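Appendix B. One record, verbatim.
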Amino acid sequence: MDLEQIIKRLDWIDEERRKDKTTIATLQERLLAMEGNIPSLTQQIKDMNGEITRLITVMARLDQFESSLAQTRVDFSRMVENNEKLRLDHEREVDKVRRVELEGVNKTIGEVRKGLEPIPDLRKAVQARQEEEFR
């Protein structure tokens, strides 16, 4: 190798070394910037962990509430069904009592009518007596 090639090679190596130094400096600056972000990121992670814990608690309460609400719906449906059954039973009983009372009233009316049947005959008899006495 001649001297000129060696010098070119050394220049190239120096240039590469300078590029490497610049790259290393840039990477060190980026690393320092990233290391500066670590405390704030750590705080964000802690905050998020706290929020996750809170949300887990809220979700557990929501699950409990949904379960309670579902049970309340079932209980309420049963109460409505029972009340409807009681209402229908009461309505049937009232209808039965009304029919019995109506039969009693109809029977009484029939008896009164039977009792009223002799009245026209009695009227005729009274009128006949009055006419007889008047003569």
